User: What shape does this take?
Amino acid sequence: MDSILEVKNLSKKYDDLVAVDNISFQIKPGEIVGLLGPNGAGKTTTISILMGILEASSGEILVSGQNLATQRSEIMTRVNFAAVYAQLPGNMTVYQNLYFFGLLYSVSNLKNRISEIAAAFNLKEFLHTKCGLLSSGENTRVTLAKALLNSPNLLLLDEPTASLDPSSAHLIREQIINYAKEQNAAILWTSHNMHEVEAVCNRVLFLSRGKILLEGDPKNLPQQHHKNNLEELFIAVAREPLSFELS
Amino acid sequence: MNLKRIYAIIIRQLFLLRKNFTRFVNIFLWIALDVILWGFITQYLNNVSKAEFSFVPAILGAVILWGFLVRVQQGVILSFFEDMWSQNFLNLFASPIKTTEYILGLIGASIITSVAGLSFITVIASVAFNYNLLAIGLPLLLFLLVMFIFGLALGIITISFTLRFGPAGEWLAWIFPFLLGPLSGIIYPISILPNILQIISKIIPPSYVFEGLREIVFKKTFSPELLITGALIAFIYLFLSYLIFVYTFKIVKRKGLLARFSSEG
Assistant: This one.
């Protein structure tokens, strides 16, 4: 089946600094791809470009065959994101936030959809509470509810479970895995929790200094590089990126 | 163009106003205080001067029109600042919204708050100072339109500055009316200004509005020429302000300033 997301030769330069260096990858329907790498590797820059809030220096991004550079608004009705650093306005209630973003994403049958998504993320009791009064875990659930409000076929998740307790994180992971399967959605997931990545992702991309150094199944990749697990491999890539670049 | 997205920006502002006393009062308080202050000053001037005319329509009418312009500008910037203060730019601009829809949403929110403020002070001026602004008739509507368009342009220019320079540039938004006020001839004719300042006044639409208002009050004549010149300049400012916003937004996206907006403070 054709890819939902196709990134071709993407680069982002700030004067002399190369934040993303000529990367290419695809995500197929139903696939969850982990974007891994140490701080400053270029993960958030890549996601920001995919969200359309940062202009690439060169390269092309196709979402379901449409070019992001020329059809951003139309594409974004079928894309959404959640990030630990992008919580919803704390001065509006959960319902008001979901209503506001539902309108922005042109969600049909909005009131029913809000009710549905609030039930799915256990938010019904908080619907009329201001987001600023919620705990960080509850706010993360609201952010994820917003991310799924428009039933996106491409979902960008930047450390989505970072502020959740292990039990809530487990439930959220299950929900997102099920969502990808049921809706045949493509998901790009960044995380520093390697156990989570092993449990969730079908494939991972290791990014360092803006380049993709490794790509593969998170269950097999460590063995291929003589490491015991994904965390060991992550540490090795973060500390000695050159050895992976050469190989 | 998607009307739902424009509506979203407007309804968000109404959500924030609803059940929030301090935000609600802000729409009316400053402009009402201005009218009350100038209402008393004009009454005092009437008492102490031997002038054959009343200062009330000349000064109070102008203060109301200026207050309306400031409310229009602040209507635009406050909606924008709500997104800035709540660090909502990522969520907002990663959505399908287009810059034109966002601007139209801000304008919609500004119409609601500025018209509410104007209605309130019109009643205050009438009740407290026996001044009927509506007696000016059709020219009043046309003057208000010029002030509205220029207020929008000012609002869009100021949010462009803030978008480019980050939260640290917020003060720029509040200072514009104070910079333009003395040059607009709100209370005095611009002919009393030094020559160099008169040149600047001539490219500011409100100076034509206030001159036109004085003609109506003192000479009982309406000058279409002043109105048309003011309106034309105001439309040019509005057009330029839109271009400035679109250009600024492109720069901000290229430099990655949206993603790290809060750090620019």
Observations:
- The two ends of chain B are 33 Å apart (CA to CA).
- Chain B touches chain A through 31 residues (CB under 8 Å).
- Residues 224-255 of chain B form the longest helix (32 residues).
